[in-house]
Amino acid sequence: MSQGKARVSSLILQETFGDLVEKVGKYLIDNGAPTLAEIAKGLYMKKPEVKKCLLVLLQHHLVSYSTHKSNTLIYRAELSAILGRVRYPRHIHTGKDVAGDIGEMIVEDIVQHGQSVMSQCITRVTQRLREGGTKHDRIEEQVKQKFEKLVESHLIYRVRSPSLETTPTVSVQSIPIAERYIIPHISVVQLTNRKRGHSPEGDDTDEPAPKKSKSDRVEEDDSPDSDILWFLNIEQFQRYYRNKAIVQAVGEKVDPTSSIIIRALIKVSQKALHIEEPLYSGNGPSASVIQIMEGLPDNLHLQKEELVQYLSLLVEEQFLLKTDDAGGGSYCVNYKSASNLLCQSVLESVVCERFGSKPLRLFRLLLLKKHLEQKQISDMALIPNKEAKEMLYSLLAENFISLQEIPRSSDYAPSRTFYLFSVNKNQVARVVLQRCYKALGNLMTKRKHVAIDNRRLLEKYAQWERQQTSQEEDEVEIEEA
Question: Is 317 within 8 Å of 337 (Cβ atoms)?
Fold first, then answer.
C-alpha cells in the first residue's frame, strides 16, 4: 500500500465521519488486522469509544471483521471501499439516470445512513419529498416502486446484518447471490401508518393515546422488515460505468450507430445473465444476431446484413468477440480488450497533456512496436535523433517508458550493448494512479485550509442564503394569501 493511498483514505474518513473515527480507521490501515483490545491500547482510547467508531465504519461497509485463532475478532480496513467514497456523488447521479429524482434521493439516503432497512429508507425519502413541497396521495407507493427498480437494476442489494455477538468465518457483508435481490413484501398501508405513527390495527376512537415510555417508543418504531438490510452494490455501479465508457469509446472511434449496437448487445446479454459476471471477467455473455436485432431501438432501421457488417467491424476493432457461426453468428463483448483500449487511451491523454504531441507519437510507436532502439524510434517517428533522445529520456525519467539493456558480451561494454525502449502499460498505469492519489490528497488538504481561512466568510454566505430562502417563502405565502 502506497503512502498516497493511505493519506487519501485518512482524509476521506476525517471529512466524512470526523477526527475520532478517522483516528480508528487510520490505525486499522497502518496496523493490518488488530483486535478491539489492541486498538484501544494503541490509541489510548476506551473500549466503548472504539466500539462506536467501529460500528460507524461497519455501518458503511468500510471495515470487515473475522475470527482469529484465539476465537477473538480482528478488524480490517477496506481500502477499496474507503477510496470508493470519492465516487459517491457519481453513484447518486447514476441513481437519477436509472430511477429519476426519487432514485437519486434513495441512493443519497443510503450513502448518508449506510446500510438501511427498506421501509425506513422509503419513509425518510417520502418525508423529504413532502418537506420539499411534493403533494401526492400515493407518494409512498412511488418511492417503493423506484426502490424496487434500483434493486432490479442490481444497484442496491441485500447485505448481512453485522452482529458482534457472532464469530463469523467470512465477511459479514457476504450473502448468497440468489438471495441478494429478493424484495420483501411491504404494503403501502404499513409504510403510511409507520410514518404517521399509527399501528396497522389502530382503533377509531378519538381518545388521545397514553404517553409511552422510551422503550415502548423504540419498539413501536421497529420496521416490518427490520432484519433485512440494503446497501449499494458498488461492483454493479462500476459495471455501469465500464459499459458506459465502452459505448462512448465505440461511438468516438467508429460511429454513433456502432455505439447503439454495442449498447443493445450489453443490454441483451445482461437480461440473459442470471448470475452476476465477475467485474474483471474477460468476456461477457454471448448473444445471437437475431437477439441483437430485437434489442435495437425502433428508429434504427438496419438490415441483417448491415448489422453483421457492423459487428464484424467491432470484432476487428477488438471491442467484440465472435463466439459462434450458427444462425448468423453469436457475439459477446470483449471486456478485457476493451478495458485495455480504454486504459491505453487514458495513458495517451496523460502523456499528451504532460509532454506534448511529439512525445505522444513516440509513446504510441513503442506501444505498437513493443521494443525499439533509439535510432529506430527517431527514424520511424520522423523526428531528429537529438530531439527524439531528449524526449525518450524525459519519458524514462518519469517512468512512462522502460529501458532494457541486452549485452552482446559479458563485459557489458556500451558499444556492444543493445538499448531497447518499451512501454509497460501496467507500470505506467500504477504511476498515473499514484499521481492521482497524490493530487487528490493535495486538493483535499488545500480545500480544508481554504475553508478554515475563510470560515467567517462562508458563515456569512450561509446566513445570507437562509435569509434569501426565508424571504422567498414569505413572498410565496403573501401571494397565496
Answer: no
